[in-house]
Specification:
Blueprint (H helix, E strand, L loop, with lengths): L43 E4 L8 E5 L5 E8 L4 E4 L1 E2 L5 E2 L13 E8 L4 E7 L3
Antiparallel strand pairs: 1-2, 2-6, 3-4, 3-7, 5-6, 7-8
C-alpha cells in the first residue's frame, strides 16, 4: 500500500505515523520511502507570505523530497541555504544575512535525499 505523508504529528515520536483512526494511532507497520508518483509533471513552487524582504517557499511535485534548498545570491555570487519549517516550507534563517530585496527571478538549487541536485529558475508569485 502507498500512502502520502502530508504533515507532522507534534505529539508523535520520530518516525511515527498517526492515521487519525480510532485508538491511539499506533500500528505495527514498516515504512519505506519511495519516489512520488508525479508522472511527467514539473516541479512547482508555492509561496506563503513572501515579499521582497521575506521568502517562504514550498517545493511540490518532486519525485524525491528535497532535503536541502539553496537560493543563489546574485551580488555576492554565493548559494544561501534555506531552513526547513515544520509546516513543509523553506525560509531564510532569521539569523542569516541574505541579500534584500529578494529578487523576483530566483535561482534555486534543490538537493534530494539521495544527493542528486537540480538547479531551477522561477519568478515569485504570491
Amino acid at each position: 500500500m502507498v500512502v502520502f505523508v502530508k504533515d507532522l504529528c507534534p505529539e508523535c515520536l520520530a518516525g511515527s505515523l498517526d492515521f487519525a483512526l480510532n485508538g491511539d494511532g499506533r500500528w505495527d507497520i514498516q515504512i519505506q520511502a519511495i519516489q512520488c508518483p508525479v508522472g511527467n509533471t514539473k516541479i512547482e513552487y508555492k509561496f506563503q507570505g513572501s515579499n521582497p524582504w521575506y521568502i517562504k517557499l514550498q517545493i511540490r511535485n518532486a519525485r524525491i523530497p528535497a532535503t536541502h534548498v539553496e537560493i543563489y545570491q546574485e551580488h555576492s555570487r554565493v548559494w544561501k541555504a534555506l531552513q526547513h519549517t515544520s509546516d513543509g516550507f523553506w525560509v531564510f534563517s532569521p539569523n542569516d544575512h541574505y541579500e534584500k530585496p529578494v529578487p523576483e527571478n530566483i535561482q534555486v538549487r534543490l538537493t534530494s535525499a539521495h544527493g542528486d541536485q537540480v538547479e531551477d529558475n522561477f519568478r515569485i508569485r504570491n
